[in-house]
## 1
Amino acid sequence: MSGEKSIFGLSAAGRRGMVLPELDVPADGSLEELPAELLRAELDFPEVSQVDVVRHFTRLSSLNYHIDKGMYPLGSCTMKYNPKVNDLMAALPGFAQLHPRSPDRLAQGALELIDRLGGFLAAVAGMDATTLLPAAGAHGELAALMMVKAHFRKMGAGRTRVLVPDSAHGTNPASAAMCGFDVTEVPSNARGSTDLAALGKALDERVALVMLTNPNTLGLFEEQILEVIELCHRAGALVYCDGANSNALLGHARPGDMGFDVMHFNLHKTFSTPHGGGGPGAGAVCVKHVLEPYLPVPRVVNEGGAYRWSRDFPDSIGRIHGFYGNFGNQVRAFTYILALGLSGLRRIADAAVLNANYVKARLAGAYDVAYDRSCMHEFVLTGKRMARAKGVKTLDVAKRLLDLGYHAPTIYFPLIVEEAMMIEPTESESLESLDGFVDAMLAIAREVETEPELVRHAPHTTPVSRFDEVEAARKPVLRWRGAEAAARPPAKPAKTKEREAR
Amino acid sequence: MTHPYIPLTAAEESKMLQACGLASVEQLFECIPEPIRKAFQVDGLPPGPLSEPAIVSELTRLAGANWACDRLVTFLGGGAYDHHVPSIIPSLLFRSEFATAYTPYQPEVSQGTLQAIFEFQTLVCNLTGLEIANASMYDGATAAAEAALMACGANGRDQVLLSSGVHPSYRDVVGTYLRATDREATLVELDTTGQTPHAAVAGADVAALVVGYPNYFGVIESLAALRRALDPKALLVVVANPIALGLFAAPGACGADVVVGEGMPLGAGLNYGGPGLGFMAVKESLMRRIPGRLVGMARDHHGRSGYVLTLQAREQHIRRARAASNICTNQALAALASTIYMCTLGRQGMIELAKLNYHKAHYAFRALEGIEGVRAVFPSPFFNEFAIRLPREPRAVLERLEREDGIAGGIELGGDYKGLEDALLIAVTEKRTRQEIDRLVAGVRRSVK
């Protein structure tokens, strides 16, 4: 085991973790009259004391790596410091205990915050309006694609295609497909940018939207962005900016000024809300006037100083969330923006971009940079040479980093770089911290030369070693089945090819 | 002056620029075409950093402009409920190890998150009576929408029956998602008992029927009867309140193929409706179609048992345009809150909690029904929420309850349901005391006299 039993394994009949309020009203006898088939027969839940619960989850937590412990060089994920004051502000009872069905007259503070945060983001984006309803970046992409679809439907244009570069995040084509669009991939050029000629060839009167990431997933600013967007607009298509990499642009440049029609921000990347082990995040979609009528509802409107939710937008795509998105994260992002102001946001981009270039410069000798030009907030290495010469893959390098006290970078993405390692230090790391990471990477590069086996079988110091993920997917066990699971024959220790070679 | 979130000093900046062979930070941004940099202008943002006391003061002012459940006794429900959040939840949830960890793509340093998700999946399966549960969705409404899309994909049909007893906002979200792929939802109106009529769903060549359990009016519908009436190929998708499942039959045991719902009542708090917690459980046959992340057991190279993200070939980062869904970031931390909650309450606690909710709501219902001119909208069994008709305009009654009694008395139904302009939806959780319920009843009596 990884060291911690299942909570079901800690269960003992009769234990309890909490005392509930007493029943202080007479029962009306109606429960006894209900037909038995409507009622539950049994509930297989653990019975544990409060001490058991606290210790179980505290012990589990100790098995995690996290940003408060150390650096995450995860490209495109922007794992920056999550300020504590954000969490405290989101926990204020006036926010945390506010019921979402409260009449607007009882929620004026929340509505003001939503309205102002939307304004902040539109200003940073250079756009005209914002929706904070999406619960994540991919949710924002989906909402934007629905808006684009509604727009062309209203114009009577049969535009059914979406173009994405081959370096795009997987969510871009997945969101487009979920919206019923045909997706075409456009190849990048030798400099890692959008290939104008290939784009021109792919564009026709059926293209509704071109989805770009800028800076792109190679960490490179699209040098010809003005020409690219003009080309799209001339073909009658709208242009989307996947704002996952917005950290690089804060206080320096605005997607709206580049000509983008619509974009999303990941509040859990650029605006510091915690990742939570996979979520909740928050997406925000900013649009130019052309798409504003289609924004999802409800929208906050301000009439004579009083805020209210309105659904009175006949061209809207409709609702995309049961309530108002991940409000708790909206409070955090708002707090973050106040804590930085415009000058602070600009300094974030300065530091994020300088940090990335510094790490790239220091690693450039020992590793190969995929596109060796000035990067923005992240850059991509290729482990192709190590893989060929020494049989050490990018995966092995990533796992060895875990031994040395760092999280792995994003690996095998973008797909257009063989054995890719994508590194984004963010502005949160000090020079000592960056040097520590670089030294670890350089030590691994030396190990690849002298002790490749050590790297190939890493990690060695983590609570568990590498898993047999193929076997896990072949016979999936997706829930605790008590004795049944324990009775499974123990799997043979997997023999990797590398081990057999040894 | 450096900013507390940005360690970089001026001296380090020079040193690092030198290492990069650069003279200034500005040079790093020269890859951005000049017209774009020249056009840069941001209005409406605070120009510089605020101090922490100033931030706290501003946020406290905004929070104070809300009338939350700390200041009003609430009987609001409608998809969000004022349940107690055990103190150990915030204490465990905001441990840095959970809150500031990334998605567990590196299982060797993420066993804490992975095992917690595995336990979440198990608890959701046991609660719903189904075999496979995912690691979470954005909220109950989007989980319902994804279930509808999954059903269309599973049986190759395009029409979804949507009971009018499903939360109105959820119905809107399902409609939005279906419209995007030119599919449609057909509304099935509740009958006069507040149940989805079996005859209306029978024999139709549809992808799925979506019903609420309890439905928006708190009514417990007969799932087994709906399953019997429904075409065998069509999926029965149940939108369930997880608290109710401590008392009422597990939908999986009644023939549901998919159970989704909003997990916020399980200790995630209200937070003005988000972070929500969508959950989704399905029959085993839908394992390779379920959207979202799945955690499975695995063995490491030393034969030790542990947990990994598995069946990732369904997901966007592998399958791209052919993925089961575009979902990536989910609601993991809210799922952890609910896992801690379900473990803390445990087997007995979940049953007792559901009974408390049931009895308190019924006590309130009987007392309100006893007021002259007040009557039930539906005669069916209900859980912790019910609809009543008032002899005067609900808005006036609610405003007087707020003003004079400090009570948020319920939700007006007229906006969402024609013919219910005189009706209120009232929810009663375990937190409401007899005294508070009596105050509500007295306030309503006074207002309708």
## 2
Amino acid sequence: MRNIYMKRFLPAALALTLLASCEKDEYKIPDPISEISNDCIKRTLGPNIASLPIEFVYAAAIPNTKGKLAFAEVEASIPGATGTYLEHRSFYTNSSGVDVPVTVGSPSVTAGAKTKVTFTVDTNAVSLRYYYIVPSQARGKQVTFTFSVTGSDGKTATMKMGPYDVSMMEIKRLIPMSNNNLMYLSIADMTSYNAASAAANAAKIDLVYLYRTTPAAYQHGLVAPAADPAAYLPGVTLPAGVNNNTKVIKVFNLQDRNLARLQFGIYVDDIDMQKIDFNGAPNFALGLRAESGVWVETADKKYRAYVFVNAAATTGIATVSMLRYDQTAK
Amino acid sequence: MKKTAYLMALLVFLPAASIFTGCQKGLPVDEDGLLITTRRECFVSNFELLGNDFVSVRNGVPIIDTVAQTINVTVNFGTDLKNLYPQFTLATDCKLDPKITGKVDFSDLANPKSWTVVSGNRQIRKAYKVIVKVQ
């Protein structure tokens, strides 16, 4: 008798245990949208850096029975820099994956922190891009956005986005470097100098760019002016006063998206600049090539930077880009 | 009746068996939790030196002398000798003493760094000197 009970009970108990977590939620028909409505996504990944855009897509719709869309507006907590705009074209993605624009309004007008597009066509639904150029005064602060759309019935839908942290870093892309000419790199000025200009800005020269074929391992180098001249600065007569002892850490496979603008989804952020350890770091980096880079700390420790090599040719010409972090600015 | 008893026994003992399978006792382990085996081989089979950027800084192949217990390696000109990551490939079941936990400073070229290879049975120890030369 007991065995029969066990025989029936055990499989049933096992089945119950297995099925306990498989309870279904009943499907509910979503409420139909009966008023003007909106939605928004942030498209830009990585740190928000001054002078670069933060891109959003703002979608708005109104039921046909309620009228049409009148205007859309974005208000940023910190006014955007020149170049901030809200698209007056609505985009849809076609079957080939291409974003196709449809003009729906007049070009956006920015007044202070507000950017507005007035719709000029009879439309019930739009998807607008918003490009906010991060202003330099936003560095180290937070920025928020209020997107809103108003229909011809006078009703408004609003969506808040953020707050988003703005990086302390500054960016400079595509700085030309050349052997024996534009060979002096200044982190403070984020630019390259020739010998005459370097002499006038001696205290700001942090690295010297060289291209040497002997020894074979030298190739493209970024060397601190204070490095051993015989070994690492062969054939270079430094301008008077150029003598900073900059620390350099060579890196490979760190193709920061903002600097490299390649397919890699890697981002250098403030925290990297804060945490990198320069103890025992050398004052030279040799054997650099395209897509390599160097972490740099200036002799006065004011700046840290990541210098990325965009291109390096055997003609002794290179192009570098840099992200710079000011350790004294908080 | 017999069938039910069999089923019950199976239900009780199968999970118990699964739980205890990985807990077999008796095999000796060392202070690092590594199995002590019967192997007596004790040598370095390959050696690599990586720079700060995790790219090899070797110039040519390393010369490993298992009799003299030395590793001669030439590194590229301009290598930052203070921040290198050595990598040893050892005979099966061997381990290295001291362990390599990060960057190693090879800048004192006159005093080569030394590591001891310990055999699988933990009975044989051989100290290897790493002699670095700059190209």
